Amino acid sequence: MRMTTLLVALWFGATSLAAVADDAALRDQSTSAGLKPVPYGLQPVSDNPLTREKIELGRMLFFDPRLSASGFISCNSCHNLGTGGDDNMPTSVGHGWQTGPRNSPTVLNAVFNAAQFWDGRAADLKEQAKGPVQAGVEMANTPEAVVVTLNSMPEYVERFGRAFPGEDDPVSFDNMAKAIEAFEVTLVTPNAPFDQWLEGNDGALSDKQKAGLGLFLDKGCAACHSGINFGGQDYYPFGLIKRPGADILPPEDKGRFQVTETASDEYVFRAAPLRNIALTAPYFHSGQIWDLEQAVAVMGTAQLGTELTDEEAATIAEFLRSLTGEQPVVEYPLLPVETAATPKPQL
Amino acid sequence: MRMTTLLVALWFGATSLAAVADDAALRDQSTSAGLKPVPYGLQPVSDNPLTREKIELGRMLFFDPRLSASGFISCNSCHNLGTGGDDNMPTSVGHGWQTGPRNSPTVLNAVFNAAQFWDGRAADLKEQAKGPVQAGVEMANTPEAVVVTLNSMPEYVERFGRAFPGEDDPVSFDNMAKAIEAFEVTLVTPNAPFDQWLEGNDGALSDKQKAGLGLFLDKGCAACHSGINFGGQDYYPFGLIKRPGADILPPEDKGRFQVTETASDEYVFRAAPLRNIALTAPYFHSGQIWDLEQAVAVMGTAQLGTELTDEEAATIAEFLRSLTGEQPVVEYPLLPVETAATPKPQL
After folding, report:
1. Cystine design at A287: which of A61, A105, A148, A282 (Cβ 3.0–4.6 Å)?
2. Which of B183, B184, B199, B218 is nearest to B38 (CA)?
3. For the segment B177-221, what is each residue's pLDDT rounded down to a tens digit?
4. Which stretch is the leader sequence (chains A, B) (predicted)?
């Protein structure tokens, strides 16, 4: 026992010294692998100029349960800004207490993803925002009913007018989605320890985290998980080397195949963004793995063909915890008051 | 037609002049009837010293869906601070998409009520807070499971320690309730137009609102609806003079009788507080009346034995709209991160 302890201590000592000495090299390697910090400031999005009025309106809509047929479920129900921008459930609860088919992805930093949803079926956040509002197992509403609801409240009518000035018909389902996108653009988490380190602060990562970053790069994780979001940029078969069990990869959910109907897209999913991963258990589209170390190990086996040791998985997980950034601080919105014309809750 | 219009105009003109002339008298009458403004500052509550740490903890707990068995329902789900402190539903959606037996009362200004719930079965807010957490049709949790959940998250353990310093066992179900009470003490809405008027600003109420206040006092509404909250102070039979229909007063809900088992308490309820009533439709414990004018008319018939004219009901309703105060502005809390020890969602 004493010998083992000594060896572990020596191993950590060696790792520590190596990491400290090699910060510059590790930083170069990270940059070469395409790892980037979360930028400050608002990311421009296509066909949707960002204004204060639009962002403010989007904040209201994001929290407004009256976008759902029941009047009970808002965007924030499943993309809870208090818990990492998701709901900490395997799959979300929706209309009628149904559960959805896939784990709710975080809304945080979603603007940096190349496309939205696990299968990338929405090109951007404004297209994404229309999905759950209409999904029968989520908010179960219709575009027509949403527009009636919004038009029934004078404060919304006025705010849509100011957010979309000069438009003939500002209160529309499309503009609802644009306003929500504008708010979501603000939901970014800069200044994570990794970002501070990448920008030159050697002390922002622990030695173990630096060792984890080294493993993350050397084992090939960054081949799929890179860019600002450490993922979210492209699509890969889940089980590239070895298909995981049916609990993790249920055979009935064929991923991107359902979007493209292309055989090579069977069980293909967008590489999960790893920002704030420590806040967003459970993991994978099936949401069955609660433990970050275990999720890392599954990735090693399934995607890299590598049986990571427990120590390696734990060290990589410790690095991933350095991707938790400053969470957005949001004022809870005061919502417009209903009128006699507002549709009643449909349970 | 022209004659009618003229008469209406004359009637309004007379009302207007009378109201302006009689502000001082109306103010005296209001004060004599026990109407009071919402005070600024924190209302002390029994056995629960208010500290910044406790209020801050309570804010987190109020918004934390992990107090429910499902991990989906928080206090704010039914007492939504964005929509007047309630949920704008006849009766609330709870665990398993069940609906509760009574309309969700607003949490705003609840600290000024003599007791909590429609039947007053909780003496104060800290007792109230324990109810929905355990109710099978609401959050469906147990005190034991809540304590396990809270203890599983180091940030909660630390915050309970700071909110309840010197206690041997700070993370308890009782202290959860005390922290929520402390936060709810902050949820008051001062400076409503009526309050401004009562404190001397003649222009804060419109002439119609002053006429409505006059009717409110002359017809006897203030006999039950007085104090800071315009209600919430005592218990009265619903249908004192004439029992409303079964849609409004379902025969199976005997109100305070279920608490006291005293025959004279059949269909007795706490007088509903009228603060922010314009934000909290639908009305009554059964939540079947969406229109404020109609609710006023029902009260006239059921409680006063008076068939109010449409004009009278509308004028009183217009006065009641002056009871909407400044809504609390709350920062949406960042909640503690879960650990492997956190109980999983129980759907």
Report:
1. A282
2. B199
3. 999 999 999 999 999 999 999 999 999 999 999 999 999 999 999
4. 1-21
Residues 277-296 of A with CB under 8 A from B: 278-279, 281, 290-291
**Cβ density class A150-179: b for 16+ within 10 Å, e for less:** bbbbeebeebbeebbeeeeebbbbebbbbb
SS3 string, chain A, reads CHHHHHHHHHHHHHHHHHHHHCHHHHHHHHHHCCECCCCCCCCCCCCCCCCHHHHHHHHHHHHCHHHCCCCCCCHHHHCCCCCCCCCCCCCCECHHHCECCCCCCCCCCHHHCCCECCCCCECCHHHHHHHHHHCCCCCCCCHHHHHHHHHCCHHHHHHHHHHCCCCCCCCCHHHHHHHHHHHHHCCCCCCCHHHHHHCCCHHHCCHHHHHHHHHHHHCCHHHCCCECCCCCCCEEECCCCCCCCCCCCCCCCCECHHHHCCHHHCCEEECCCCCCHHHCCCECCCCCECCHHHHHHHHHHHHHCCCCCHHHHHHHHHHHHHHCCCCCCCECCCCCCCCCCCCCCCC
Distances B294 to A340, A345, B300 between C-alpha atoms, Å: 12, 20, 10
B239 close contact with A: CB closer than 8 A: no
Chain B residues in contact with A80 by the CB 8 A cut-off are 65, 335
Cα distances from A13 to residues A23, B60, B174, B182, in angstroms, run 16, 40, 47, 49
Nearest to B116 by CA among B262, B238, B26, B233: B233
C-alpha A266, offset from chain centre: 22
Q: Is A63 on the interface with B (CB under 8 A)?
A: yes
Per the listing, tokens 């298909």 go with A243
Residue A6's pLDDT band (boundaries 50, 70, 90)?
very low
The model carries a pTM of 0.94
Would you place residue A18 in the very low, low, confident or very high pLDDT band (cuts 50, 70, 90)? low
pLDDT tens digits, B281-290: 999 999 999 9
Which residue intervals of B70-124 are DSSP H helices?
Answer: 75-78
Residues comprising chain B, all counted: 347
| A265 has a chain B CB within 8 A of its CB | no
- Inter-chain contact B82–A327, Cβ cutoff 8 Å? no
Instruction: Tell me the residues of chain A between 67 and 86 that have a Cβ less than 8 Å away from chain B.
Output: 70-72, 77, 80-84
Q: What's the gap between Cα A214 and its chain centre?
A: 24
Q: Which two tokens stand for residue B319?
A: 């006065």
| B89 labeled binding residue | no
Q: Which residue of B has its CA nearest to A69?
A: B89
The pLDDT value given to residue B1: 39
Alpha carbon of A155: minimum distance to chain B alpha carbons (Å): 13
Instruction: Express each pLDDT in A135-153 by its tens digit.
Output: 999 999 999 999 999 999 9
Record: contact A327-B337, CB cut-off 8 A: no
Tokens read off for B161: 């320690």
Nearest Cβ partner of A337 from B70, B90, B278?
Answer: B278
Contacts of A71 in chain B (CB under 8 A): 87-89
Is the complex ipTM more than 0.90? Answer: yes
